[in-house]
Design brief:
Number of helices: 18
Bound molecules: acetyl coenzyme *A
CATH class of the largest domain: Mainly Alpha
Number of domains: 2
Order of helices and strands: EEEHEEEHHHHHHHHHHHHHHHHH
Protein name: Citrate synthase
Strand content: 5-15%
CATH superfamily of the largest domain: Citrate Synthase, domain 1
Keywords: Acyltransferase, Transferase, Tricarboxylic acid cycle
InterPro entries: Citrate_synth-like_lrg_a-sub, Citrate_synth-like_sm_a-sub, Citrate_synthase, Citrate_synthase_AS, Citrate_synthase_bac-typ, Citrate_synthase_sf, Citrate_synthase_typ-I
Helix content: 40-55%
Number of strands: 6
GO molecular function: citrate synthase activity
CATH topology of the largest domain: Citrate Synthase, domain 1
Shape: globular
Structural class: mainly alpha
Radius of gyration: 23 Å
GO cellular component, one term: cytoplasm
C-alpha cells in the first residue's frame, strides 16, 4: 500500500503521509495541510472522521466489536481483573505486580480524605441539585484545597496528583449520594478494598454498627466500573484532553469531563434509559408504540441506550452487562419488570429494518441502569457511577497527552456569517 495520500485542489496535487497504527488503522496526516495548500482546511462536524491524537491506551474496532485496554480484551479484564488493577493498567501501561498494586492502593488510601470545607460547599447545594452538577462542582472545588498545579516533568508529582484524585473522588461520589438521600456524611474504611470501601461509603446507614459487604454487589460494581473505565476519544475524554491541553490542572480537566459526560447522548444515557423504560411500563408496556416513535423523524424521541458513534455491529460491553444484569438480579432475588421490557425492546429493535439499516445496537448504557437500580442506587446517580468508572481512563488520557507534549487543542472553522458591513447608528436601523 502507498504510504502517501494525494489531495488535488484546483489542479494542484498535494501529497500527505499516511500514518499506520499498531492495529493497521490508517490515517492521513494532514497536520501540514494548511501550509501546503495555501490555507485550505477540513470540515468534519462531530469529528466523525478526525483523529485528534495518537494513543497507546485503548483500542476499539467498532465493526468487529473489539475493545481492549492496553492490549487486554475487555471480556478478559471484566472476568479476571479488579477495578484498581485495571486503573493501574490504564494509567501506567502494564498490569501491576502485587507489590506495585499494594503500594498504589496504600498511596490512594493516604489521600482518602477531603478538606472539611468541602462539606460546607456540598451543604450549600439544594437537595434538588442534579448529582452530576454537584460532582463536577466538587471536583473543580478540590483545586481550591490542592492549589499547586502538577509539574508534569516530575513523575513523582504526576503520581501524587493521580493517587490524590483516586483517593478523594469516591468520597465526593458517596457524599453526593448521601446528601441527596439525607444521610450523614461518612469517610469510609481504610481496611477495605477500593470498591468495597466505595459501597460502604455509599450505603452504610447511621443505625448500623457494622456494614456487611454483599459480595454480589462488590462483584457487580467492580465489573461495571471496569467496563466503563476507558473508551478512547469520546466526548468526555476529548474534553479532558482539550482542557488539559491548555495546561489547566488535572482536577479542572476532570471536572470538565464530568460535565461532558452528563449529557443524555453520552453518559447521561444510563439515566435516560431507565426513565424511558419506566415511562414505557407506566404507559402499559407497549414497546411497539415506542419503536414507532423512535423511527418517526417528526418525533424527537430516540431509543435511549441504542446506537453508538463507533460500534456498528455490537457493543462488547453491552453483551457483558446483559449477562451480568441477569446474574445480579437473579442473585439478589430481584424481579424487575423493567428488565423484561428492555429485553423485549432489544429483540424488536434487532429485528427491525430501521435499526438494522442504521446498525443500531444496544450500547453499554442499555442494561447498566437496571443493575444500578437493583443495587439500590438512585436513578440520577447512575451517570455519577459512570464517572467513577471513567476516572482512570480520563487520568490515563490526560497523562498521555501531557507526557507526549501535545499542542493546545484549537480546531479551525469555515466562517459562513456576514461579510464586512458598515455600522449603522441605532436611529438609522
Ligand atoms: N433511536 C432512533 N434512531 C437513532 C438512534 C436511536 N437511539 N440513534 C441513531 N439513530 C438514527 C438517527 O436518527 C440517524 O438516522 P438517519 O440516518 O435516518 O438520519 C442514524 O441513526 C445515525 O444516527 P446519528 O445521530 O447520526 O449517529 P451519531 O453517531 O451522531 O450518534 C448516538 C450516536 C449519539 C449514540 C446516537 O445513536 C444516540 O443518540 N443514541 C441514543 C443515546 C445513547 O444511548 N447514548 C449513549 C451512547 S454510549 C455512551 O456515550 C456511553
Amino acid at each position: 500500500m502507498a504510504n502517501t495520500a494525494t489531495i488535488e485542489i484546483n489542479g494542484q496535487k498535494n501529497e500527505f503521509p499516511l500514518y499506520t497504527g499498531t492495529e493497521n488503522e490508517v490515517a492521513i496526516d494532514i497536520s501540514k495541510l494548511r501550509g501546503t495548500t495555501g490555507g485550505v482546511t477540513t470540515i468534519d462536524p462531530g469529528y466523525k472522521n478526525t483523529g485528534s491524537c495518537v494513543s497507546g491506551i485503548t483500542f476499539l474496532d467498532g465493526e468487529k466489536g473489539i475493545l481492549r485496554y492496553r492490549g487486554y480484551s475487555i471480556e478478559e479484564l471484566a472476568e479476571k481483573a479488579d477495578f484498581l488493577e485495571v486503573a493501574y493498567l490504564l494509567i501506567f501501561g502494564d498490569l501491576p505486580t502485587t507489590a506495585e498494586l499494594d503500594k498504589f492502593h496504600a498511596d490512594i488510601k493516604k489521600h482518602a480524605v477531603v478538606d472539611d470545607d468541602v462539606k460546607k460547599i456540598l451543604d450549600a447545594f439544594p437537595k434538588s441539585a442534579h448529582p452530576m452538577g454537584v460532582l463536577s462542582s466538587l471536583t473543580s472545588a478540590l483545586t481550591a484545597f490542592n492549589p499547586s498545579s502538577v509539574n508534569v516533568e516530575s513523575e513523582e508529582e504526576m503520581y501524587n496528583a493521580i493517587v490524590r484524585i483516586l483517593g478523594k473522588f469516591p468520597i465526593l461520589v458517596a457524599w453526593t449520594m448521601r446528601k441527596k438521600l439525607g444521610l450523614p456524611l461518612y469517610y469510609g474504611d481504610s481496611s477495605l478494598g477500593y470498591v468495597e470501601n466505595i459501597l460502604k461509603m455509599m450505603f452504610k446507614q447511621p443505625n448500623e454498627d457494622k456494614y456487611t459487604q454483599n459480595p454480589i454487589l462488590v462483584n457487580a460494581l467492580d465489573k461495571l466500573l471496569i467496563l466503563h473505565a476507558d473508551h478512547e476519544q469520546n466526548c468526555s475524554t476529548s474534553t479532558v484532553r482539550i482542557v488539559g491541553s491548555s495546561h489547566a490542572g488535572l482536577f479542572a480537566s476532570l471536572s470538565a469531563g464530568i460535565s461532558a459526560l452528563w449529557g443524555p447522548l453520552h453518559g447521561g444515557a444510563n439515566q435516560a434509559v431507565l426513565e424511558m423504560l419506566e415511562a414505557i411500563k407506566e404507559d402499559g408496556g407497549d414497546t411497539k408504540k415506542y419503536m414507532g416513535k423512535a423511527k418517526d423523524k417528526a418525533d424527537p424521541f430516540r431509543l435511549m441506550g441504542f446506537g453508538h458513534r463507533v460500534y456498528k455491529n455490537f457493543d462488547p460491553r453491552a453483551k457483558i452487562i446483559k449477562v451480568a444484569a441477569d446474574e445480579v438480579l437473579g442473585d439478589l432475588g430481584v424481579q424487575d419488570p423493567i428488565l423484561d421490557i428492555a429485553k423485549g425492546l432489544e429483540k424488536e429493535a434487532l429485528e427491525d429494518q430501521y435499526f438494522v439499516d442504521r446498525k443500531l445496537y444496544p450500547n453499554v448504557d442499555f442494561y447498566s441502569g437496571i443493575i444500578y437500580r437493583a443495587m439500590g442506587i438512585p436513578v440520577d446517580m447512575f451517570t455519577v457511577m459512570f464517572a467513577l468508572g471513567r476516572l482512570p481512563g480520563w487520568i490515563a488520557q490526560w497523562r498521555e497527552m501531557r507526557l507526549r507534549k501535545e499542542p493546545i487543542g484549537r480546531p479551525r472553522q469555515v466562517y459562513i456569517g456576514e461579510n464586512e458591513r458598515a455600522f449603522k447608528a441605532i436611529a438609522d436601523r
